[in-house]
């Protein structure tokens, strides 16, 4: 098959295709230029095009995100080809000399913006758990008891931050997010948050007002706050933050920027303890 492709390419080079009567053309422009400090040997690009990996003659793999150099990894000088795996966090390192393929697991640390986001726990907690969630998502609701367990285990060590990521398939998710942030202006976000999830199957415009009334919020004041354009701005920012962090589904949990892969008590403990140990080692 490879030989056939090479032969086809040679034919095209020797007998170039004549332009059609319609004078079809391809418009092009240089999308991005990466400045390197060594000659490139191979390049691999993630499916979404955001991550670019460059293998250099100095046996470094340069890791670019959206055109910016994020990090570099030193590999053996026997590595002569690289390829992105089925998931962008897997990189295949190929060596023709050693006749090997190594699977390199990458862990991307995301910078999650938590300014203006509701949180509970110490302001200066060493571990920040950011959760992208949707009030109509049953899996997000199922995560709550586990989060309570984690909070009980690390009362002074973690801060839990709520990030809105309402899915388009959930018709009332955006309105629920607006209502919860309106309650946040009365310092009642988490109480409202809990009642929204408790009423997940009965959400409606009236239910949003009823929950506010149960928490002692004046209806007219609450409706006025729901119309605050700053709330929509916060939700839009949360959505953008989630997209930048690679959120594809909810709930998505990040612990100090690391996406949590195992949503279990053990999974939380493993990552939290690792982060706490890093903090202690740094002092």
Automatic annotation (TrEMBL):
Single GO molecular function: oxidoreductase activity
The keyword Metal-binding belongs to this UniProt entry's keyword annotation: no
Family: Belongs to the thioredoxin family. DsbA subfamily.
A Pfam family: Thioredoxin_4
The protein, known as: Thioredoxin domain-containing protein
Keyword terms: Disulfide bond, Oxidoreductase, Redox-active center, Signal
Record-annotated Thioredoxin domain positions: 95-277
Record flagged with keyword Cytoplasm: no
PANTHER family named in the record: DISULFIDE BOND FORMATION PROTEIN D, GLUTATHIONE S-TRANSFERASE KAPPA
InterPro entries with a match to the protein in the record: Thioredoxin-like_fold (IPR012336), Thioredoxin-like_sf (IPR036249), Thioredoxin_domain (IPR013766)
């Amino acid at each position: 098959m490879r030989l056939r492709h090479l032969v086809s390419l040679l034919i095209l080079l020797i007998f170039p295709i004549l332009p059609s009567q319609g004078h079809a053309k391809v418009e092009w422009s240089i999308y991005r230029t990466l400045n390197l400090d060594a000659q490139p040997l191979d390049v691999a690009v993630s499916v979404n095009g955001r991550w670019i990996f460059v293998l250099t003659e100095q046996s470094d793999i340069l890791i670019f995100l959206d055109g910016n150099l994020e990090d570099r990894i030193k590999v053996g000088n026997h590595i002569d080809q690289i390829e992105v795996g089925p998931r962008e966090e897997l990189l295949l390192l190929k060596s023709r000399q050693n006749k090997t393929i190594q699977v390199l697991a990458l862990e991307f640390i995301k910078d999650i913006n938590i300014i203006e986001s509701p949180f509970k726990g110490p302001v200066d907690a060493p571990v920040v758990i950011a959760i992208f969630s949707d009030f109509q998502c049953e899996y997000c609701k199922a995560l709550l008891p586990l989060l309570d367990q984690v909070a009980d285990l690390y009362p002074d060590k973690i801060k839990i931050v709520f990030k809105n990521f309402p899915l388009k398939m959930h018709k009332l998710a955006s309105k629920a997010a607006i209502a919860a942030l309106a309650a946040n202006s009365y310092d009642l976000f988490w109480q409202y948050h809990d009642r929204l999830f408790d009423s997940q199957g009965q959400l409606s415009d009236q239910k949003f007002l009823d929950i506010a009334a149960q928490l002692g919020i004046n209806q007219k004041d609450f409706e006025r706050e729901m119309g605050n354009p700053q709330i929509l701005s916060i939700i839009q920012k949360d959505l953008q933050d989630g997209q930048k962090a690679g959120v594809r589904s909810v709930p998505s949990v990040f612990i100090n920027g690391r996406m949590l892969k195992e949503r279990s008590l053990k999974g939380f403990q493993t990552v939290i303890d690792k982060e706490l140990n890093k903090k202690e080692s740094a002092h």
